[in-house]
TrEMBL record:
GO terms under biological process: methylglyoxal biosynthetic process
Homology family: Belongs to the methylglyoxal synthase family.
The gene coding this protein: mgsA
The protein's name in its UniProt record: Methylglyoxal synthase
Pfam families, per the entry: MGS
Organism of provenance: Bacteroides helcogenes (strain ATCC 35417 / DSM 20613 / JCM 6297 / CCUG 15421 / P 36-108)
Length: 174
């Protein structure tokens, strides 16, 4: 039987990096064999810690840019492309982040795509200890946004815009 491979995003604000590293090390046996996407500094530190604890294990890590330098947006892109099933994003609730809009966009995309998402250690503990984490039959419900993407179908938006431009052009040439 083929091994179940979860695609996991790992992100942590500076004040939470140690907490996420400790959580990953604590759960490293459960995390072996899965695919990881991490923002720059967080991923580099986690991979270093995992290699120290398990020097003979080959970890599958994709390390993106640092969050404030575009890594949060790269992570969001991977969520939208279906490359991430779980996002463990340990946020610092006490510090305003200079890239707060990127953080909000990332959390919004996790919700839009209905992926498993958490922002603290206790929720991460509950997720990884859930029988669903290793259940090969479990698949998340992927939202159907067909109605949204087709909301302009059968509406004369383009025709109206073209006609409006023709009117402006006629007005200018008169």
């Amino acid at each position: 039987m083929e091994k179940l491979i979860r695609k996991i995003g790992l992100v942590a604000h500076d004040a939470m990096k140690k907490d996420l590293i400790e959580w990953v090390l604590w759960n490293s046996e459960l995390l072996m064999g899965h695919k990881f996407y991490c923002t720059g500094t967080t991923g580099t530190l986690i991979l270093e810690a995992l290699k120290e604890k398990h020097p003979d294990v080959e970890w599958d890590f994709t390390i993106l840019k640092s969050g404030p330098l575009g890594g949060d947006q790269q992570m969001g892109s991977r969520i939208v492309d279906g490359e991430i099933d779980y996002l463990f994003f340990f946020t610092d609730p006490m510090t305003l982040q200079p890239h707060d809009t990127d953080v909000k966009a990332l959390t919004r995309l996790a919700s839009v795509e209905n992926i498993v998402f958490c922002c603290n250690r206790s929720t991460a503990d509950h997720i990884i200890s859930s029988p669903l984490f290793l259940d090969p039959i479990y698949e998340r419900t992927v939202p159907d946004y067909t109605n949204y993407t087709k909301r302009f179908e059968n509406k004369p938006v383009v025709a109206e815009a073209v006609e409006q431009e023709k009117k402006r052009k006629r007005k200018r040439s008169s």
